[in-house]
Design a protein that fits this description.
173 residues, mainly alpha, rod-shaped
């Protein structure tokens, strides 16, 4: 049996349109399949790594926020302690200055009291002398202008008058 030309042409045309599925894998198909699998696994790996990095960054940011809050609390506590220490130091300095001022005032008061006592002693002596001059009148013949006075008699009179004056002087104060 022989096929004629029209049949061959018709067979070829039909064969062209009715291609059989090729079940054989060509090396190019295998290459592209492997390349696609590698690309898919690479994309999945990159997505997983990016997810892990995002998760780590989220945890890191949370930890940093906690550390910042703790640092702020520590800083505030330190500032409060520093302020308290500074206030205590200022109070201590103020108290020391006040104590020194009190000591100066006490020394001045002591000096004033001492001067007042000295002045009182001087005034008392002066008042006593004035009172003595008013109190003592020498007996006749013992006046200070008389050069012929009896020294023993005048001395005894002076001593007796002085004793009377002294005993009365203590009672009058």
């Amino acid at each position: 049996m022989q096929l004629d030309q029209d049949e061959i042409k018709s067979y070829e045309q039909r064969a062209f349109f009715e291609k059989k599925e090729n079940t054989e894998l060509s090396p190019v198909t295998i290459f592209f399949a492997v390349l696609g699998a590698i690309l898919v696994s690479w994309v999945i790996r990159q997505a997983y790594i990016e997810w892990q990095v995002q998760r780590a960054l989220t945890v890191f940011n949370q930890q940093m926020q906690i550390m910042n809050a703790q640092s702020q609390q520590e800083l505030q506590r330190f500032q409060i302690q520093s302020e308290a220490a500074r206030a205590a130091a200022q109070e201590r300095v103020r108290l020391e200055m006040e104590a020194k001022e009190q000591q100066k005032l006490a020394a001045i008061q002591l000096e004033n009291d001492k001067r007042a006592q000295e002045l009182a002693v001087i005034q008392e002596k002066e008042a006593k002398e004035v009172a003595w001059k008013r109190f003592y009148n020498p007996i006749r013949g013992c006046e200070s202008e008389n050069p012929n006075r009896d020294a023993i008699k005048c001395g005894n009179d002076y001593i007796k008058a002085r004793k009377r004056f002294e005993s009365g002087w203590f009672y009058t104060q």
